[in-house]
Amino acid sequence: MTESISNFITTMTQYPWVFVAISFIFAATIGSFLNVVIHRLPVMMKREWQSECNFYLNEYHPDIVKQVGTERLQKAIDPFPEKYNLVVPGSACPKCKANIKPWHNLPILGWLMLKGKCADCKTGISSRYPIIELLTGVLIAALAWHFGPTWQFVYASILTFVLVALTGIDLDEMLLPDQLTLPILWLGLIINLKGIYTSPEDAIIGAAAGYLSLWSVFWLFKLVTGKEGMGYGDFKLLAVFGAWLGWQMLPLIILLSSLVGAVVGITMIMAKQLNKGNPIPFGPYIAAAGWIALVWGHDILNWYLSTL
Q: Which helix (H) or strand (E) covers residue 305, if one does?
């Protein structure tokens, strides 16, 4: 087994384009699953919150239950009584409920074969699905080219998959679920016990500094304006990059994410797609900046220091 893995790594090192192509195909397939995560995880979370509300009302406010009626309350609290998770029910058209055939679920190609429409009722299928599959494939292919067949590539791919899911969810719901950010935070600390990307000390300090830096900005802004400028999920996401890349990368990530966020926000206001004062998700900009720092962070810092 060990010899087979060693031979595979040797072959992939000799033929990097083969490794990049295999990585792209595999990642695009994972991207298809990430579409499911982006759509279903928020629904699953809302169902859980609704169930907790239902339990609270039944436990502490039986008078409300009596007035509304148990059946009516249950229907309002849990509008999806059927089993619902990342696997069940199977993929189906949201309009006609026709099951999607396996070959139509092929990443990118399935959407192209269907010409972006349901095979049965011809309802349009969002182009976001192939875009996420393509984006995931391209990002992992870039990691394969940069890191080669190494453990750095494996862990960076896991982080990238989670970042794609978090970005999609934040754009849809303005939410960065703890179910995704916390496990990847702990994974960053664990892998850096062996110094995969940075030293254990820098990883621990980076996780704390990443969280506390945005936490401090949040409270300063709230004390001055009385408003909340960002969500707690943003603190945790920056802590993720501190844990993975060390505290030294945090200024670069904060600078890049703030710059891109400002440019996008101003552009949307000028295009009248966003009103002043309306919130925009900041997670995608942190994710993009962190991914850039993961791949080219040291090169960027070395270039900047060489210009001083």
A: helix 283-307
Q: Are 48 and 80 in contact (CB under 8 A)?
A: no
For the chain, give every domain's residue range: 2-114, 150-307
DSSP string across 187-215: HHHHHGGGTSSS-HHHHHHHHHHHHHHHH
Of how many residues is the chain composed? 308
- Residue 111's pLDDT band (cuts 50, 70, 90): confident
Residue 235 pLDDT: 93
CB atoms within 10 A of CB 260: 16
209 DSSP β-pair partners: none
* Res. 84: pLDDT tops 90: no
**What global pTM score does this model have?**
0.87
| Alpha carbon of residue 192 to chain centroid | 21
User: Which of 39, 125, 35, 44 is CA-nearest to residue 83?
Assistant: 44
The secondary element (H helix, E strand) that includes residue 9 is: helix 2-14
Token pair 């928020």: residue? 42
